[in-house]
Write a structure and sequence with these properties.
The structure is a homotrimer of 681-residue chains.
Chain A (H helix, E strand, L loop, with lengths): L11 E5 L7 H14 L3 E4 L4 H4 L9 H12 L3 E5 L7 H6 L26 H18 L5 E5 L14 H15 L2 H8 L26 H27 L6 E2 L1 E2 L9 H4 L7 E3 L9 H15 L5 E5 L18 H11 L2 E6 L25 H14 L8 E2 L3 E4 L2 H7 L11 H14 L4 E4 L10 E4 L7 H12 L3 E5 L21 H4 L1 E6 L7 E6 L7 E6 L3 E5 L3 E6 L8 E8 L2 E6 L5 H15 L10 E7 L4 E7 L5 E4 L6 E3 L4 E2 L3 E4 L4 E6 L9
Parallel strand pairs in A: 1-2, 1-9, 2-3, 3-4, 4-5, 6-7, 7-8, 8-9, 11-12, 11-13, 13-14, 14-21
Antiparallel strand pairs in A: 10-22, 15-18, 16-17, 16-19, 19-20, 20-21, 22-23, 23-28, 24-27, 25-26, 25-28
Helix pairs in contact in A: 5-8, 6-7, 6-8, 10-14, 11-12, 14-17
Protein name (chains A, B, C): Beta-galactosidase
Keywords (chains A, B, C): Glycosidase, Hydrolase
Family (chains A, B, C): Belongs to the glycosyl hydrolase 42 family.
Chain lengths: 681, 681, 681
């Protein structure tokens, strides 16, 4: 990922562009309107396999040649997609055995989007062939600055139960475990009498009478992701062999749980991500921040592309809430604040037909005389003013652990409580960090944690001995660690740790766990929060308690009711030069506030004193800092800016004097050429 | 449908009759009891294929000969069914490839009801063969007055994904679109790369990874209905070639959404309908009224047969609420009031076995010494007193638009909000018209609307340019039109109209729509209803708002909260000689009252001043009018009748003097030989 | 079942033991800990097929020889399982046609638990082969005191739609009905035209367009259970031919509705049962009591084995609530009180891997330094003090009817109300009996009822003429009968009785039913309870009313609202020397209290005067009675004990003087060597 940034010294701006939906007169208008909107970059080609290769082995590139020439003439860069996310109808007809099979054995056909069986040799060959032809032809086209392989790997389908998958799964397992003894041990096949005697007996985790072997299921999630990654790499390498532009594929961060973005990021030249608000979430901007932070973290802090988001409503949620005036701009700047150097949309012009005709676009069905288009033009102007931010980086003192494999494992059946959801817990802990105006990285438990003052593990159900040792060393070296309950239950094979739940963290946390104590549906209990020197407070507890036994930790809070009444609800343990907290309670975001505040104190973190609902994130360049301020509330606020002499607001192009006034829903970007008077206090 | 009424100058009365369930002694008793109940007509034969053709090509008509003779001797007319809704067990065993396949490819077998694959040549041949043999044999039997093809086409299954269906679908598409270019254009296959290169690539809308092409799905709904209609026509024509009695098939009005009754009605000689209350609906009689009005409308105002309803509970709903005393009679008279000239039940005698043994009947399990049988006898007596109403017609000043194809389209996936349901909206608008005591036709948007004072479009998601022109001309000619939100979004291929949502109605409504603004689940907002000269009122809004921009219309109500706060919630526009309203809000029935009241004023409609909960519908004959009055409340009411001198109440056979007293739950039928003093004021 | 008790003159104690999960050092520790815990008995072998027969026809018994020797040396009895619940992976690979097919035709594969198709000849042969080899080898091993065939027949899957099942189903039907005429009559195939002409046309009740024939479905439930029973008998007979130890299989009482325990019990030498609390049920101990009473009743009053329960949480429920301190002991003693002479757990040591790793065990993941293990040791000590109770029996004056076939029939589709659930009704009636401290047998309606003072029929939807005659004779002979609504609707073929619902009980109850009157979802109504000489009380009624007509019975309560307002809600009828009550209302447990109290009066039953929430059950031996007292409340209580001179509390080994003090959650076992001063008053 040390690739040079391909989209220019600016914040790139644009969209997926589908000229194949339109007549030539509309396309001509598109180029005019793109200029009006300040568009710098478009993504094309992802859905054009049938146009490029109308019959197997017969190609038609003429229309694409002309399109690229036109875009180049208009000064617009192109991110050129490979079409492997949508094989043509002829592919399905010619290779029916390449179709994905569901767990129940139902083949998934054409007439939608989504790939063929990723392990199908026919599919892989066809993908490499078309990607190679594109790369050969456009390696030197001046419009093409980036390759965009596939679209949203893992969505809408990742797992495949076809015969091709069966063969590949056995091979993958043989690579992983060497022999059947290794497999039998890893999968615990003596349980329920599942011991395998030959490789031919090993199958995909298909329908079974009771639940399937959890270790097998976890390996199948790994294998399924691996199969997709192999497909990506085949296409990428075919392009690299023929062209020199960088290669990306658009991730979906936490919205596509089939993909472990941290594992994929090293395979792309530039990380790019798609993000859509969850309409039902009234605090969707916090989910956005989490996704952006996760993307930046996967990118190792390097600039990344917001490849898709929406100008207003999407179409695939139950109730597709439209964005309110100003919301699109706040969303866009939040991504920029958190490391995006390109702001792209799905899509340029709303499609009149197909599955996504109710999806918003830069040019909506209502045309250019519309709120949306006016805001699109305004955003283009704003981003143009932020070009100097390109290449600057985001720094964070806090890390939240994110381990997709643990999420997979926790999500399997027959866990202690269906109410314990890794994504929910991660979001809730993240949300309190966001409310405290702290910028957070999302890192893996085996990553180097030394640069963080605080590390929070909200959902580390699966934690290897190696990862536990890393966390222990982090604390010993002076770090502050907060671990939420239901942690370190199992190892990488979903086997309970020897010594019991939490055993690998017993040393650092100074506690061990006798038993999990889930609550009944809807039940609530109370936690008495009583740290030394503070007035006790009662926090609301739901879903979960544990029977924790002290091995040196102190009790900071106690379950006041529920099955664990009288037992520790929060513990604190000094280990080496650092401190480790354990929180075996399920607290809502308000309940996490005092817990995190206490951990901040241990970590030497002082959250900035900003108005509630104001997002502030700082990007750091060479001798200059940029702070993006976003007011997510319905009231005007004043944000104090210390030492305002050197601070300039870029959007209005005005100097800042003492405070910044942020209107309800407003936004500002401050540049400080000396070390910024940090608005975070 | 200009057929002569085959059931006599009376309101026919009867039921499905299944003597094959019973021993001869019970059958003998049946004939006695039918006379006691006043039964005039029974339907037989629908489930007797296996008895008539016990082995393929071997027939046994002797028992049916005797049965028809017995019924004729008892003076009972017969509606003779063809048995194609239940192929015999030998058919499934002999032709397994004729089974319906579900979308997932699971074959549906025997042991229930429901047809074979409607496109199966074997099924079609077998149906025509048995229908032909019946028609040949009973063309001249004096008992047989009507042919009844099949049973409830489209229920319980309409769509079929068998190989036969695939072949037929391609053929149907080729007929519709001429060539693949036409198909590709109509289906918008450039979206998500679905372009078809040969007909062999075109498939049924089977399982896909993400949602299937919506235009393909809409066409599949059309095709599936068409395939059933072809089956009907094959049987009908086989009968017509051999017999002269009229032919019907029993529809299910709005309860079988797979069938577009308006499109089928021209194919039958007499329209007949099955109707069952929705037990969970405490206002089920309003749903009944809608179904009856829809049936009459499909019949073009001609008399129709209520082919099935129930004396009390059904058996296939989650909680099968029994009818209360008097409810069966009110239900029956409501159908008569709305145009039915025959009142038939499923079924004569309750079956002791099979899937519907808990369904009520004219003779219940408890026998003749029961409330139900006593009311059955009483109803027979009542209907006998209404014989003179046969052939009179219902008139209405109001039409509600009903377009089954639009309902299909709106019901597909990925619409702006799952809470926008075409049937719900239609029922809610209809319900306020019912509360206002207005009799309503349900017509298609392309029908001639000139005879209506008011036309309401509650759910016109799909509206063609041609239909929009029809509505526009209707208003220009002096009509009053009310259009509810989410209208005219797409054309007949589910393609968004050029110019955006509502574009085809922009001229007549004087507004256009920038964006849909769905609300979150359960959210409410307020509409400030403030027509000129009225005190403002606050109406409750849920589910839906739109961003409407005025192009000449006036604002009558405004969104006071929610995403559209400050934008128009109701607009009014004078166009030509008429007026057009747009209501881009989702109002419950109470909220629709003032909106419709204002539209009535424009339309010159004065709703009759009747007590709440009293249903009054008038049928008009030659110099005589009949008004059915039904009291759906638990209180006695007095209904004023102007100029009572010439009015006679038929059920009690008494003259009416000034007012009619309706007991709680009571009923009356007024005959006025001069132009009726309209009880509607 | 006249077998000698094989587990010694003691309350046996132990668990499923899976040494195959562990290394030798852990196994060595196991034997030490078992002694510490007082373990007398373990069950082994159920999941070891792949270890015993690693390849088809190749056996390895050496490890099992050594294990049995070790256990015997440690003084531990062995219940040796046959492994037929988990065929090895090689079996599935070798015999794919032996897989269970779901109703939709999806094959269920390996990688879980659960048997192959029970009708598969390959499966049956393989089961008999391995069971025979085990029986031959261990017929004389001194450790082996009991054979344990299979595991939990019917769970997790009972029904199979494979081709093997089709063949067997036809054969079973031919045996049952003789010829097709019998089948057609029993299934009512004239309904919906389903008449069968040849046996080849008869199928499994697979997917159909509407609901399948209910009689066919009921027969399929019977057949499916029969197929499993055949499998059991094949293994049992193979063992009996080679070994003399008694044979059992572990039932699941009411928790596995696929199995009719009363029908199976005669086939086993010792009845054993698995029981797990329903975590969502805050009164789970009442469900436990019902299951235990059902098990004892199936066992004909003979001692039975609690083969599995849990020390704390299970893992397969949505929220797996852990047991609170003392709860495991109360649960265990409740089983003993109700006839269990062995208390066994799943499992000895918590598995670290596999599907049930979060299931509790005698040795939890946290090890021996844990609350759970301490309580396990304490329970072992308690049970050791109760050894003299072994072989004593429980007596009851009350019987609740339990007919699994009726439950199957009632559970089919298209019944009058989905809210009428046989298990719920049974539990609710049982619960009031429990609250009244009455010990209840669960018997079949055709059983000899003469020894009971009171018989309650909570859910007798299917009641044969023969059973009705038995109930009638019981009342005529002086018994008191209470029948709840929706009774005697159908006969054994799910055919409504001639004469209508309830007809076979018309004589004894003195009423007949005109119509069922289900209530809408969530609706409530009132019952006016007004027996002669009592103040009227209003009871809450939901779900259900009936239109009952008196034929000699008196009205004790009346529906005060709802569809049956004014009709009888409870009737009482003296018939012969006894009394019969009919309760056509759906009352919650509080509403059943006065109804049952009135029936007790008729029956001459005086419920014991014990504190609320205290469970008291008495076992009777030769000149001695043992009363187990369990305090399920959170408060201490005093239980009066009359004539305390001869009473001794066994757990504390102290004499009882006047009252027994039961701490909150506490337990006591009283021995009275003279006829016990019954604490039940």
């Amino acid at each position: 990922m040390a690739t040079e940034w391909p989209l220019g010294r600016r914040i790139a701006y644009g969209a997926d562009y589908n000229p194949e939906h339109w007549t030539q007169d509309v396309r001509d208008e598109d180029l005019v309107l793109m200029r009006e909107a300040g568009v710098t970059t478009v993504t094309i080609g992802m859905w054009d396999w049938a146009l490029l290769e109308p019959r197997e082995g017969e190609y038609d590139f003429g229309w694409l040649d002309r399109l690229l020439d036109d875009l180049h003439a208009a000064g617009i860069d192109v991110d050129l997609g490979t079409p492997s996310a949508a094989p043509p109808a002829w592919f399905y007809a010619t290779y029916p055995e390449a179709r994905v099979l569901t767990r129940d054995g139902v083949p998934l056909g054409p007439g939608s989007r989504g790939a063929a069986a990723p392990t199908s040799p026919q599919y892989r060959e066809a993908c490499v062939r078309i990607a190679s032809r594109l790369a050969e032809r456009y390696a030197d086209h001046p419009a093409v600055v980036l390759w965009h392989v596939h679209n949203e790997y893992g969505a809408p389908v990742c797992e495949d139960f076809s015969p091709h998958a069966l063969v590949a799964f056995r091979s993958w397992l043989a690579d992983r475990y060497g022999d059947l003894d290794g497999l039998n041990a890893a999968w615990g096949t003596t349980f329920w009498g599942q011991v395998y005697g030959t490789w031919d007996e090993v199958g995909l985790p298909g329908p079974t009478a009771s639940i399937g072997n959890p270790s097998q299921q976890l390996d199948f999630a790994r294998f399924s992701e691996h199969a997709l990654r192999e497909c990506y790499i085949l296409e990428r390498d075919a392009i690299r062999a023929r062209a020199s532009q960088p290669v990306t594929t658009n991730f979906m961060a936490n919205e596509c749980p089939a993909i472990d973005m941290h594992a994929w990021a090293p395979e792309v030249d530039i990380v790019s991500n798609d993000h859509y608000l969850t309409a039902a979430d009234v605090d969707g901007h916090i989910g956005l921040a989490l996704a952006a932070d996760l993307t930046r973290s996967a990118s190792g802090g390097a600039p990344w592309i917001l490849m898709e988001h929406s100008t207003s409503a999407v179409n695939w949620q139950p109730r597709n809430v439209a964005k309110r005036p100003g919301e699109m701009a706040r969303n866009s700047l939040a991504h920029v604040a958190r490391g995006a150097d390109a702001v792209m949309f799905f899509q340029w012009r709303a499609s009149r037909f197909g599955a996504e005709k109710f999806h918003s676009a830069m040019v909506p069905h209502a045309g250019t005389s519309s709120r949306v288009f006016r805001e699109v033009v305004e955003l283009g102007r704003d981003l143009a003013r932020l070009g100097e931010m390109q290449g600057t980086t985001v720094r964070s003192d806090v890390a939240l652990l994110w381990d997709q494999q643990s999420h997979w494992a926790q999500g399997l059946e027959w866990r202690p409580s269906v109410d314990m959801d890794a994504q929910e817990r991660t979001r809730t802990w993240y949300e309190q960090l966001w409310r405290d105006h702290l910028t957070t990285d999302l890192v893996r438990p085996t990553d180097d944690l030394g640069r963080y003052r605080l590390v929070v593990a909200p959902a580390s159900y699966l934690l290897t001995e190696q990862a536990a040792a890393n966390l222990t060393a982090y604390v010993a070296g002076g770090g502050t660690l907060v671990v939420a309950g239901f942690a370190a239950a199992v190892d990488e094979t979903d086997t309970v740790h020897a010594g019991g739940y939490l055993a690998p963290l017993r040393t650092v946390l100074g506690v061990h766990v006798e038993e999990y104590l889930p609550l009944r549906e809807g039940a609530t209990a109370e936690v008495e929060w009583a740290p030394a020197g503070e007035w006790p407070t009662t926090l609301t507890n739901r879903v979960w308690q544990e029977h924790v036994v002290l091995d040196g930790a102190e009790v900071v809070a106690t379950f006041a009711s529920g099955p664990g009444a009288g037992l520790p609800a929060v513990t604190r343990h000094e280990h080496g030069a650092g401190t480790a907290w354990y929180v075996p309670a399920f607290l809502d975001v308000d309940g996490l506030a005092p817990v995190l505040a206490a951990a901040y104190a241990d970590a030497g973190i002082v959250p900035p004193a900003l108005p509630e609902g104001v997002e502030a994130v700082t990007r750091v360049g060479d001798g200059v800092e940029y702070t993006v301020l976003l007011n997510h509330t319905d009231s005007d606020v004043e944000v104090p800016v210390a030492d305002a002499g050197a601070v300039h607001e870029l959007l209005a192009d005005l100097p800042v004097d003492g405070t910044v006034h942020l209107a309800a829903g407003g936004r500002a970007v401050l540049r400080a050429t000396v070390p910024t008077p940090d608005p975070r206090g």
